Amino acid sequence: MIDTAVPQRLPVGRVVxxxxxxxxxxxxxxxxxxxxxxxxxxxxxxxxxxTATGAAGRVVYGVVTDGFAYSDLxxxxxxxxxxxxxxxxxxxxxxxxxxxxxxxxAVLRQSPEEPLQPVPLGRVHVASDTDVAQALRMDAxxxxxxxxxxxxxxxxxxxxxxxxxxDADFLLGPEAAHLNISxxxxxxxxxxxxxxxxxxxxxxxxxxxxxxxAVCFNVKGPDLCFLDRPGVLDDDDRRRYAxxxxxxRPFERVRYYAPFKADxxxxxxxxxxxxxxxxVEPLVWGLREVLDYAEVLLNRDDVDAKADAFIDFLADxxxxxxxxxGFGGVHRVVSFADLERLFRSIFDGLELAGRGDSWRTxxxxxxxxxxxxxxxxxxRCKGLVTDDGPSNDLPWGRFEDRAVYVIxxxxxxxxxxxxxxxxxxxxxxxxxxxxxxxVEAVVVFxxxxxxxxxxxxxxxxxxKMLLDIxxxxxxxxxxxxxxxQFRSQMHRRVxxxxxxxxxxxxxxxxxxxxxxxxxxxxxxIKLATLPIGELMVRHPHFTQPIFVRFPRPAVLRGRDGVExxxxxxxxxxxxxxxxxxxxxxxxxxxxxxxxxxxxxxxxDVRRALAHTRQARPHxxxxxxxxxxxxxxxLRPRSSRSPAVAALGARRSRCATTxxxxxxxxxxxxxxxxxxxxxxxxxxxxxSRSWCCVCTTPNWCTDRCRAAxx
Length: 709
Description:
single chain, 709 residues, 5 domains, 10-stranded mixed sheet, elongated
């Protein structure tokens, strides 16, 4: 809130202009007393002598960019001779040297703005709240019938704390958009600044602009894992919140998403404390979700145009459609397992027909290469990509107003992070284009942006997507908040399209790069020594960068959250399954689940659990039991021609027998032997599992062993 009271102000200095240091329309110099509240980054108001007498005169606002101190000495040698080379005698000298403080200021605004003239010789005052608003042109969006001001921090100088606002039209679109923040790790408080700014945006987003949400990618540690938990604030922080008219509270609507670990039941996140893990939704994708972004996962040096054409053929003609393989088999491919069966049917058919060179204009070598790459995706991204079973995704089309969707990929390998980022942002763009996302604007926060949009390196799918968002996202309501340590190593088009640029504490080597040559030496020194919680902000309405201080975010910091809510150890398979079912239905008892899944294959249990999680039935346990009773599938089993089926029967039976043989229950003391021609060892040890002859979940009997070929 701007304090409109006009205080009684005494001048603190006066503009001075010489032949060597003249006053210009964009810069001026002024002197002050030795003891003054003026410093680098201070905003001042200059009034000419006509204004002091009450007449209409020129008023100039400026920000201090450099400072100097002068004495009446011509050379340092004069001072040394006067003190006879003894510093003690210099202190005791009866004559005090004359000294002045001279400051250089850059012009922020002139009133009237036309004609543009050099800064007049006049008195210099410390700026008030109203002066700060006038100097930064905030009066254009603070008032009016539809104000668009969003608090970003407090300008502090000389004991003054004046709120600084940015224009929502230039921060969130459509006039300009995007925010980029740079600074050294740990001292620039980049994540804290974004957390405060998101809270400010949610509370001050103009009502006429509609609804807004945020999607945050947690790419390191527990930084964003506790946004719904209150943090510790001191009195200074509360005073700053009140000054900025922002309520100090954690985010009210936070939705967490994280992939599974390799076991498929324990979530791959640090938010696994028993009090918090119930709020984390699994993020699991299947073939359809991954195939559209195969370019992100595949090795571009290995997959050529022919492979791209075959992948497009699979996506357009095969997946989710009734497809005939040309050998009498009809398939409906909806999962990686179905795709593997299709490939096996095609290869068997080609072998049986004696044609091993091509299939439907696609060479067999290209098909095998694509098969190998796609089959490895579910292995390399295990837990995120499901081999067979339903997927679980963000609520596309049902985004809530003022909600934060946190996607935790901190413990996911870089390949999986690229896939998550590419698909999530692409889906946001597509839904915003169709205007069916549920909100009109989305803020996407990405830390460590150097990784995704570096200045050099190969042209990746993710970098091309970021360039497209930075250049055209503002028209859709898709806004990028990016943070990185080294702005000089970012792609120029990504940082150049950011309407608002924020700098935290900077490294001296980074400040020596050409991108910072527009800053004065004093400003660079201040940037290199900024305290925690202070930032330098550039905004389209601000003629010059401004230093602001923001309060500590009202949410629990990542390190503090891990100490207060330590992550729980991974649960055994049975307990993890029971926990997920209990979360879906509080009436479920863990012992019921454990008895139900005893001696069941883990693949079947995971598949049934995924289907239950996707359906969210009223009776979760009954639905889970029904799905567990048979094979969970979204379509009937593919049909193959008799010839192809006969060719693959022996391989399939052999593989099935070996897989069943591995399911040995060590708790059982009784073991049986059954001979099978499909198993080349001639015998296999089996416990209470599926019988290899009668295919019933029972013990192998003498009758079955006798019937075994």
